[in-house]
Amino acid sequence: MSFTLGALTAPIGGNITTLNAILLADPRAIESNLGYHPGRLAGGFKILLLRTLPTPAQFEFDGTTLRSGGRVGLPADDAAADAARPRVHDQITAERGADGYAKMQEIILRDMQVTGPKRLVKIMPETRHDDGMAPSAQYPMGGGFAQYKLKAPGMPFLFAASLDGKGVASIPGDSLPLNSGNFTADYPNRAKLQSYLQRA
Fold it and tell me: What is this structure's pTM?
């Protein structure tokens, strides 16, 4: 799938979270917040933003980023065992029934945002999923931020920004060093990027 900075993508599914999980100047903190193994974001990553809210038919609860892959319990050492872990979505449905699940979706949709510090966001690491790495190593327990699953075929996102492995952010029309080593010099860039991501 090709991406153009500043343009909408084709529909994308999978896990999404909220912008406040993304500490722009610290990829290691982002890895810890989202439940990626150390170094997953070292090669850079894309920041994709939703500009419209999903409908109830388009998303499922995946708990928080404490729950790797939206599944209950800790990630397993092999893929088959990991896939056997029950999903948060299924657990909620079993406990509350279809009507209770739908009511939860209605409530959460009132709190979802497409602007501001808690808007819906997807991170796409340049280092992609590795089938040869154990789930327990590749997707450790994250920091507890909201996590939802966009059902296939997903939704279009705005490709808002990319960060390279050296901490330089690219946004439409600008390049913003975030980690030059001079906090005073970098602060305006960090503030500009954060403001842009909240409004784009």
Answer: 0.95
